[in-house]
Amino acid sequence: MPATRPGVRGAVITGWGTALPDTVLTNADLEKQMDTSDAWIRERTGIHQRHVGGSTASLSTASGRAALEMSGVDPADMDALVLATTTPDRAVPATASTVQHELGLACGAFDVNAACSGWVYALVNAHGLIAMGADKVLVIGTDTLDRITDYTDRNTGILFGNGSGAVVLEAVDGPGQLLSWDLDSVGEAESALFCEIGGVLQMEGREVFRRAVRIMVDSATKSMRHAGVTADDIALVIPHQANTRIIAAALERLGIEYERSSIVLDTTGNTSSASVPLALAAALDAGRVDAGDLILFVGFGAGMTAASSIIRWSPDAVEARP
Ligand code: ACO
Predict the structure, then answer these.
(1) What is the pTM of this model?
(2) CA of 222 to the centre of ligand 1 (A)
(3) Predicted local distance difference test score (pLDDT) of residue 2
(4) Whose CA is closest to atom 1 on ligand 1?
(5) Under a CB-based contact definition with an 8 Å cutoff, are residues 85 and 114 in contact?
């Protein structure tokens, strides 16, 4: 399956942006509303705080606008908007339609729900659109998990927050950045993490932890094999930001030092579909990515889904835009 086929029209990331709501919920705040402690949350998850508030449409519009501005693409020239979210503002229509209108786009727009793997699913789908002829695609990952989280439940309330990250993908003549990808789902495990419509997240934390490490390693290994690269070749891992212990355990099994990963969950908590693009933007903004570097994206989430992909960072390829 999915190594990018030779000759397929490729794409490069030409802009990125992020958005976090202003309101911060610290571990100290949570100590007042549940039986927990700042020390326990930091030690067991790595999380210090999370952001709450905003809507999926407003955060998506903000990150999408920032990505568009960086890329210099005229919104009217965008060919598609793919919004990864597991917390749409309404059941109908897709939140992507609201964002499309707010950003002044004139193109198809749809939501993708693959929980915390969602943005990697969306990125792969966007590459598929480009392979089929689209020139420019906006790929956003946003979640407002405060709307489905009980912040008095210490089993789940310590983990989740809101945020958004976006990239602009533009077609190039010749190979693009994406070398390989893997999308997976194990539906039989859905009871480990779910939320009924109108309800709040229910989670078997230990079971999710155990499965998460396994499926992250499995998916990342497949993507590396499809790309014909090894762990030593990976310059930077952008993992789903759920828990530093999950990330450390998965990286250890993959043979990749923890220092070769981008971590933002200490300040954001688990933002589901937003976590990978937030961690990507942080690494890019910090100048941690050089031309030619291989970046491994790897996510997991409710479903239970897993997704990974490998890109070769190639800013020079921008010159080959059609
Ligand atoms: N504060 C203080 N103590 C706590 C808390 C808390 N919030 N929660 C549990 N404890 C206690 C327990 O009661 C238990 O005490 P005991 O030893 O006296 O019985 C002890 O801490 C250990 O409890 P565990 O449940 O074993 O804690 P664990 O180390 O597994 O950490 C956690 C719990 C953080 C939830 C962990 O299991 C985890 O991160 N799981 C994965 C969750 C996840 O990533 N979910 C998102 C998936 S992505 C998506 O799609 C949204």
Answers:
(1) 0.97
(2) 29
(3) 63
(4) 36
(5) no
Q: List pLDDT tens digits, range 242-256.
A: 999 999 999 999 999
Query: Residues 117, 100: contact at Cβ < 8 Å?
Result: no
Closest CA to 305 of 262, 273, 260: 273
Q: Are 126 and 137 in contact (CB under 8 A)?
A: yes
148-207 pLDDT, tens digit each: 999 999 999 999 999 999 999 999 988 899 999 999 999 999 999 999 999 999 999 999
SS3 293: coil
Q: Ligand 1: distance of its center to the CA of 261 in Å?
A: 23
Q: Quote the ligand 1 centre to 253 CA distance (angstroms).
A: 22
Confidence of residue 320 (pLDDT cuts 50, 70, 90): confident
H or E stretch covering 284: helix 275-285
What percent of the chain is predicted at pLDDT more than 70?
98
Domain span(s) for CATH 3.40.47.10 in the chain:
10-172, 178-315
Selecting from 3.40.47.10, 3.20.20.70, 3.40.50.1000, 3.40.50.720, what CATH number does the domain 10-172 have? 3.40.47.10
For a ligand 1 pocket test, name from 44, 240, 245 the mutation site with the most ligand atoms within 8 angstroms of its C-beta. 44
Name the average pLDDT for the chain: 96
DSSP 8-class letter at 141: E
Taking each helix axis as running N to C, give the angle between helix 38-45 and helix 244-254, from 0 to 180 degrees, rounded to the nearest 10.
20
The atom number, within ligand 1, closest to the CA of 243 reads 39
